[in-house]
Amino acid sequence: MQAFVAWWILAAVLVGVELTSGTFYLLVYGLAAAAAGLAAWLGAGVLVQLLTAGAIAVLGTLALRRWKQSTAHPESNVQNMDIGQTVQLESWQAGRGQVKYRGALWDAEAESDRVDSTRPLMIRAVRGNTLVLGN
């Protein structure tokens, strides 16, 4: 089997696996393998093929990492929508307890010692699945 065929088979496999993962990293590596296959088809040596695949893989990974960091994280926007909403107290003792919010019971904790549980409580932050409450 010629080298360019092997590179293109590898590219197809990587892109096919990427379709099941959704991370885009395997897509970058598939494109790098396809470019190395193109270099092999054009008659480049093994070293040039490997350098082509490596350079495109590294540059693509860096570009993808930068793109992912620059895009908004929707899960943080969902949590931010909860901040400022009032909750209904179910049980409370020593700054911790459970509250009813959006039809479900949530674990909750006070944001400080000055939180008065006899007054309406509002969500100040979300830590995992614990609501941080204040007045």
Fold and architecture overview:
The protein contains 4 helices and 5 strands. It is of the alpha+beta class and 135 residues long. It folds into 2 domains: 68 residues, no CATH class; 59 residues, OB fold (Dihydrolipoamide Acetyltransferase, E2P) (Beta Barrel), CATH 2.40.50.140. A hairpin with a 2-residue loop joins strand 2 and strand 3. Helix 1 runs antiparallel to helix 2 and helix 2 runs antiparallel to helix 3. The protein is rod-shaped and about 80 Å long.
* End-to-end Cα distance: 72 Å
Query: What gyration radius follows from the Cα positions, in whole Å?
Result: 26 Å
> Into how many domains do the coordinates divide?
2
Largest sheet: 5 strands, mixed, barrel
* Series of secondary-structure elements, N-terminal to C-terminal: HHHHEEEEE
In terms of structural class, how would the helical and strand content be classed? alpha+beta
Q: Widest sheet: strand order? A: 1-2-3-5-4
Features:
135 residues; single chain; five-stranded mixed barrel; 2 domains; alpha+beta; 4 helices; OB fold (Dihydrolipoamide Acetyltransferase, E2P)
Give a brief rundown of this model.
Helix content is about 50%, strand content about 25%. The chain is built from four helices and five strands, in the order ααααβββββ.
